[in-house]
Predict the structure.
Amino acid sequence: MTVGDALLRSTAAPVRTRYGERRLDPERDKAIAGAVLEVLGRDGYAGLTMDAVALVAGVGKATIYRRWSSKTDLLLGVMAAVRDEASTVPDTGCLRDDLVAVLTATVDLLTGPAGRAVRGLLGAVLEDPVLAEAYQRGPLAWWNAAWATALDRAAARGEISAAARASLAAEAGPAVVGLRWLVTGGPLDAAVVSEIVDMVTMPLLTRPQTTPAGPGT
């Protein structure tokens, strides 16, 4: 299972913020979560209403309100599921292959329903500190952790130096993906992932590290 698969699976089981004595069908939780993704991706945060979610999920609004008291609570529940899912980063024993695996999972996520939902949420995140914190702990946390894990393993194996691990070169791969996803709209597919890793990330991380010359040298 890829990191992207784990994220999508966890998003399908949002964390409830309301509990009662009545037993609630977990399959409806999944349907509601899927509806949140669809509405966000289609209409953005402004269009994310309980009515719209209920219509797409095929449930009544009362079904949603038995689980979450507000739109914000519902959205936080979905993002909390992302945060709480422990994603396993593939360990191929090779930095190049690890980075391809992580970027492939990232691209699969960003170009799918969850990615469209995240894009629709960005404007609200910038304005709402509560959503911003949840966003940082959820959708962004797994990506950062997966990339960092692959780099840390490579440094421990001696594939890259500690200096390279701590340099801006370590941010190059995700930066290119993020730029294409959010700004330029350039292609994001398996060929692009391989090119980013082989022509950008690996050369930058494995080149000999030099110490900047000091004054007077």
Summary: Confidence is low (pLDDT under 50) at residues 1-12. DSSP finds twelve helices and no strands in the chain.
